[in-house]
TrEMBL record:
It comes from Halopenitus salinus. CDD domains: HOT. This is hydroxyacid-oxoacid transhydrogenase. It comes from the Archaea. Pfam families: ADH_Fe_C, Fe-ADH. Belongs to the iron-containing alcohol dehydrogenase family. Hydroxyacid-oxoacid transhydrogenase subfamily. Its EC number is 1.1.99.24.
Amino acid sequence: MVYESESVWEFEMAKNVTFGVGAAAELGGVVREFDADSVLVVTDPGVSEAGVVDEATESLAPDDYTVFDEVEPEPSVEVFDRALEEAAAVDPDFIVGLGGGSSMDVAKTTSVVHEHGGDILDYVAPPTGGGRDVPGPGVPTACLPTTAGTGSETSPVSVISLPEEDLKVGISSRHQRPDVALVDPGLTVSLPPGPTASSGMDALSHAIEAYVTRRYDAKPAPQDRTDRPDYNGRSVLTDQLARTAIEHIGDGLRDAVNNGEDVEARRNMSLGSLMAGAAFTNAGLGATHAIAMAAGAVHHTPHGVTIALTLPEVIRFNATSAFDRYAEIAELLGEDTSGLSDDEAAEAAAVAVEKLAADVGIEGGLSSLGIGPDDVDHLAERSNALQRLLVGNPRRVTREDLEGIIERSL
């Protein structure tokens, strides 16, 4: 059969994005637009205890909503099950995801599973799950991020931890994209420096990997448009979003970490995260996220920190396949690449990422997270299994290549 390359690209995100300081105050208006009487707010204990739930729900009548605040970082399938049980008890006609990526992921998946029935793992791909497609829209959902990093407020994906199997799996469906994303930088002001730094580096990696991932027309054409993957390759639109995201994050992350009340820095970070999320959830990711996902599942390392400590060596590995793009990334992060060779310009991008991470308190290599030489082989094996991420990497990457990247990141 003659190879036929893809000739079109698609772009999707939340059906509506409302951005700016004060956006959270519009939640009540959104709920009324959907004529909703019963609202389930999905969040975590830290957000609840910090009073952010009260702030975000101020425009709702107290009797109109129920709070489920049991979401944990890297939520296990048991957390998703408990949220689903709460939804069964409340039978909401609107769901709000309030918090970081974990809370928003639980909200999105609760929306579709409550609407269509079954168990959480029914919708996870084989061999772990049943491979059931989400047949249609779920309960209307709004996501309000309290961090600037995950991009989950526009994403079709939720990530589920299976700790007994040292495994992370996902549910991916366009029906998991929220109906509304209310992105309010004011909700991130109380985020401590550590989570601000790690989530910000995650957002930066989303933008960088989306910018260098394989082009949409360097992939095979699907038999039918419904067969086109969610990560369908970079396009002119994702490129513009990724560039702007890199610039905003490079401008804002240091100030957001050093002074959380710097609203302009918080605005830069929230906008950068939003744009990076929209870029990568259409274009795709690469080896950095494959390694970080595997490390999180096996070693329970914090995702954003793992990303920050791995990204520079991935850039160095990928450089020969994307010299021009990494040179531009270096410039967007403030490096002067004039007069540099291709190799030197790409190296400047890796150095810029290392400098930014160190300036916000992330350094020391993967060994600082408890990963040692004896872990490299197994971690590379688990990373190599994540082909849905690696298929977009700009340079072909083997298990042996992954071993080298991990070793150099220690």
